[in-house]
Write a structure and sequence with these properties.
Blueprint lengths: L2 E3 L10 E4 L5 H9 L10 E8 L3 E2 L3 E4 L11 H4 L2 E3 L2 E5 L5 E4 L1 H14 L7 H14 L11 E10 L11 E11 L10 E5 L17 H16 L4 E5 L7 E4 L3 E8 L2 E7 L9 H12 L3 E5 L3 H10 L2 E8 L3 E9 L4 E3 L7 H14 L10 E3 L1
Parallel strand pairs: 2-5, 11-12, 11-18, 15-16
Antiparallel strand pairs: 1-2, 3-4, 3-5, 3-10, 6-9, 7-8, 7-9, 8-20, 9-10, 12-13, 14-15, 14-17, 17-18, 18-19
The structure holds pyridoxal-5'-phosphate.
């Protein structure tokens, strides 16, 4: 049964809505046992259209369905496309909360600015999440450790082959249940430092969460796979010596001197993506009584400090995988182990403290969880 309504009594968080056929409880539960990542979508989505003259329309919540695009839609030719990634978590009392959504809203707009795309009011971004979670809330998994991954995106939809910023855009929000990253001992990553390719150059789009950055990264990722590694580590574009980030995740290093523990991460130079997980870990490290710092670190320093025992652990962090330990580093020039190659205790402790906040197990001291 499909119902369409423009009646204001039928608005969900300000959006007109059209409910579609929902997956049965049995079907949904079978999907939620092992959802993996990004394979399954919920029953509905949100669409909001922009026109340079009229601004954003009221938006609608409707059944998940394909998008129809004109072959000259500008995104297909000139690549104006940005996205975000954040997660909704079932809380112990049954409510649903999203981790720091306003940070994502702000970053979405910074990305939009860099790609000459219009600003989406933060209120509209947050309301789209509320509306989708309102209708598809049964898709937020109840199993400990699982979550519902939210994917907001915006692309240029104007049919036009001339090169200039598009006058029309679509904002879309979809959601996909994600597997737990709760396993007690995650397998440490083996990472590949590429000396061949760069992700971002000063003045480029490295700070924006745009589709093109990912397109340009895939060849280096293939090089990493060929070298028997899981992920690629990016160096700066100029000197090709400084460690920047990994695949779609930021990097951290644990340094020990005497009984002092320092948690460090590469400084945001303009070519790194400013991760919200990164920002949160800097805070959690300080909360745990560690020194936390944003630094410059070269590949040689990384290797030498692992050899001398100063760097004892390394890990990558991002919304999708939360915190992933790094056990081994390889490049065309050298390879080495980080610590004993296993997941380190500080890494696992920070991981647990972040996951416990997200799943409502420990107190949310910084007000990071927004109930939806
Ligand atoms: C999204 C992303 C990250 C991680 O950001 P989070 O906000 O922590 O998910 C790191 N690097 C790149 C290149 C990214 O696209």
């Amino acid at each position: 049964m499909t119902k369409t309504s423009q009646d204001s009594s039928d608005l969900v968080h300000g959006f007109s809505f059209e409910l579609g056929v929902r997956a049965s409880e049995q079907e949904r539960n079978s999907h939620l046992i092992r959802p993996g990542f990004g394979r399954i979508h919920t029953d509905h989505m949100v669409s909001i259209s922009y026109d340079r003259q009229r601004g954003w329309d009221a938006g609608s919540l409707h059944p998940y369905r394909p998008i129809v695009l004109d072959p000259t839609a500008m995104v297909l030719h000139y690549g104006q496309a940005i996205f975000e990634g954040l997660k909704a978590y079932r809380q112990p009392n049954g409510t649903i909360a999203v981790f720091r959504p306003m940070e994502n809203a702000n970053r979405f707009n910074r990305s939009a600015t860099r790609l000459s795309m219009p600003q989406l009011p933060n209120d509209l971004f947050i309301r789209s999440i509320r509306a989708l979670l309102h209708v598809d809330r049964d898709w937020v998994p109840k199993n400990l450790g699982q979550s519902l991954y939210l994917r907001p995106l915006m692309f240029a939809s104007e049919p036009m082959l001339g090169v200039r910023p598009s006058d029309q855009y679509e904002y879309i929000l979809i959601a996909s249940p994600a597997d737990p990253f709760f396993s007690a001992d995650p397998t440490p990553l083996r990472v590949w430092i590429t000396h061949e390719y760069v992700r971002a150059a000063p003045g480029g789009t490295g700070e924006a969460k745009c589709a093109g950055n990912y397109a340009a990264s895939l060849l280096a990722q293939a090089e990493a796979f060929d070298a028997g590694c899981d992920q690629v580590v990016w160096l700066d574009a100029i000197a090709r010596t400084q460690v920047e980030e990994m695949g779609g995740m930021n990097l951290f290093f644990v340094e020990q001197s005497g009984d002092q523990t320092r948690i460090v991460t590469p400084r945001l130079t303009g070519t790194l993506l400013a991760g919200i997980t990164r920002l949160s870990i800097l805070q959690l490290a300080a909360d745990a009584g560690f020194q936390a710092a944003e630094i410059d670190l070269s590949v040689d320093e990384w290797r030498d400090r692992c050899a001398s025992g100063t760097i004892t652990e390394a890990f990558a962090c991002g919304t999708a995988a939360v915190i992933a330990p790094i056990g081994e580093v390889r490049s065309s020039k050298s390879s080495w182990l980080v610590g004993d190659g296993g997941a380190g205790p500080i890494t696992m402790r920070l991981r647990k403290s972040l996951l416990d906040i997200q799943h409502g197990i420990s107190e949310d001291r910084h007000g990071w969880m927004e109930e939806m």
